[in-house]
Hints:
Helix content is 60%, strand content 0%. The protein is built from 15 helices and no strands.
Amino acid sequence: xxxxxxxxxxxxxxxxxxxxxxxxxxxxxxxxxxxxxxxxxxxxxxxxxxxxxxxxxxxxxxxxxxxxxxxxxxxxxxxxxxxxxxxxxxxxxxxxxxxxxxxxxxxxxxxxxxxxxxxxxxxxxxxxxxxxxxxxxxxxxxxxxxxxxxxxxxxxxxxxxxxxxxxxxxxxxxxxxxxxxxxxxxxxxxxxxxxxxxxxxxxxxxxxxxxxxxxxxxxxxxxxxxxxxxxxxxxxxxxxxxxxxxxxxxxxxxxxxxxxxxxxxxxxxxxxxxxxxxxxxxxxxxxxxxxxxxxxxxxxxxxxxxxxxxxxxxxxxxxxxxxxxxxxxxxxxxxxxxxxxxxxxxxxxxxxxxxxxxxxxxxxxxxxxxxxxxxxxxxxxxxxxxxxxxxxxxxxxxxxxxxxxxxxxxxxxxxxxxxxxxxxxxxxxxxxxxxxx
Length: 437
């Protein structure tokens, strides 16, 4: 039985756990590591964590949460590819737009307002001028392809990578459906060409190349799904995974904006965690806690930089870091719940209503489909069943009943059909010489 196919499960549990873990790791990286480094604050608790995990894994610059980003990319490649194959170009494009942009636009506008009021959200150290143009470019993610680069949302750089991958899937969808291995090879060839020409067409193209340099991680998730669903053989999956790894490491050698040498190790850790979760799926059980968190990871990913980081900056000088961190986390999850109920969940419902194939299609349980793209089983694309045309049988002429035959035409009875009756036995005469006197 394949992982995730056992009866009684409604969700892919390892995907729920991986998304929840990735979101918490990224949140820790920003609210603990990034904040304490910028404000020169130390915490005994997190100093112990750093000495046991962060420093031995060479993640001291960005914290133990750094593997959370490649883990998100692996999940995306694993989930999005079968989603596109099943939905088609139109439905897939509508779903992706309504998945990413409603929450992003709200966060960009509120972040711009907070910065104008003098608050301190999570920033990257790049230009952060708040103007109508920069609000527009950040809300559409075009800012990551323009020089000078103005960044208002410190974590949104991963979203432009997702968008580029979605566009690749849409462009190659016919090939993905027919020859998945060839589509993956085209994707990797595209990445190689962009990296080879990264500095040939100006600074804007260089920013595009930096974005494309992370596509191999998403393709790794795609390859894992293809091998797990038996759409490509294992040896082909090994070759493609090796090609993804080589391209990603080579991009780091070509100075694609990576600030240290921990990116490759972070990918290895994320890949190990992902594969362990996939192999352990049959033993994992659904839990309300990580299901709830998995459905809200996108909101958590976007809101913690504005709400959590802002609250931490405002409260820490008064109550200290540890207590301020607790307040910041509570405030973040409050904002996440409001955002999920008012923005993210309604946008999911709208996407599925707009993406209906036919007006006369049977009504679907929309609420049951809203699971943050986590399907009820390991994502598979069922092969279309061939409908064999059944030829109608020609009408048969009515059969006539046999006419009764006259009495004299009946065949004679078989005399041996019944045994002949026995003749009555007569009493035998007594033997001679024995007469009664």
